[in-house]
Amino acid sequence: MDKNTALDFLSRLCDGLSVMFGPNCETVVHDMNDPNKSIVYIANGQVTNRNIGDKFKILGGKDIDKFFSGTDIINCKALSPDKRTLKSSTFHMKGHGYHYALGINFDYTNFEFAHNILKDLISVGKDISEVIQASPNTEDLLDGYIDDALKFVGKPISMLKKEDRVQIVKCLEEKGAFVLQRSIPIISERLNISRYTLYNYLKEIRN
């Protein structure tokens, strides 16, 4: 590929990428043999405020030797002159009498800002089941729920009929008692019923 063909290809590639990724994506072709006015083509130059004829400049870096040696730089963090955050890549194309570099600089400052907001928004603590299961007062909490339910039906446990027990289980269900660790054995023991019977009451209530 001769020099003119290479430049034509890279220029068209610049245009295509800039259209595909929008106004936040700057694409630029550098003539690495002429660093003082290296930019020979640029699209969306507003990202870094550069134009054709501007000198070669590393965005947010100082190690210029790697660029002129032809080392590709891929998906690195860089800064625009006005300190906006960029994803930056540079790809080299060398041939007889030319050395071009295609630069892609994507301004993701707004995305980074949105990411931080979303990260804070979806941040949570421990899983609720872990907190509930780790609670040392589960049995005391259940005892309180059961006592409240007994007061509601107005009978001591020894005088409870089936419909009374179903009503108590319904009260406990409404309070979320059955998501607590060991709720089934504790409640069935307090109500003097088997776990099987308790599960049947729950099934009856939930259906």
TrEMBL record:
Protein name: Predicted transcriptional regulator YheO, contains PAS and DNA-binding HTH domains
Organism of provenance: Acetoanaerobium noterae
Domain named YheO-like: residues: 7-116
Source taxon at top rank: Bacteria
Domain Transcriptional regulator DauR-like HTH: 142-203
Gene Ontology molecular functions: DNA binding
Keywords noted in UniProt: DNA-binding
Coiled-coil stretches noted in the UniProt entry, renumbered to this chain: none
Pfam families: HTH_22, PAS_6
